[in-house]
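Fig. S4 source data, part A: sequence.
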Amino acid sequence: MIRYLRNPTADTLAKLTRPTRDAITRYNLDGDLLTYAIDTFDTPRVVIPADDDLRARLVHEYHNAPAGGHLGREKTFAALSRDFFWPRMYKWIRKWGRSFEICQRVKSPASKQAPLRPLPIAMSAWRSVSMDFIFGLPRDAEGRTGVLGFQDGPSCSSRSRSDG
C-alpha cells in the first residue's frame, strides 16, 4: 500500500490485494504519516501498524484517561477511533478489555431482564395504545432518520371468529 501511495502507477496498484485496492482511496500518505478517512468529509486518522505493544499502550492510555476514568469498551473505542485507525480495531479493543484484570474485577454484573407480561385486552378503540420510536433509518428528504409509530390495540389485534 505504501509503495502505491508513494508511486501510484498501474503496476503498483496491480500488486495490491483486491480488498486493499477497493479501500485505497481512504488512505493518504503525508511524508511518512499514513492516515485513513472513511470519506472526504471525515477527519483523517493516523493508521497504527500491526504492533500489539503499541496498540495496547494506546488503548491503555485512552481507557485510563484521567478525565474519564476507566472507560468501557464503547467509550474507549469512540475516543480512540477519533484519532487512530487499524483494521478490526473494535474487535481488538474488545479482546483487550476482556483481558484487563481491573475492569474484569469491578465490572458490574449484567442486570436481569424483567419478565414479560401480556397486556390486557382492550375492549374498545383507543383504550390501549402502544407507541414506539424507530431510529437508524436512511435519511429522508428533510434529513430525518427516525419515526414515531402509534398502534391502537383493538384495531390491530387478531380476532377469532366463529359463525356457528
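Fig. S4 source data, part B ends here. Residues 125-156 form one domain.
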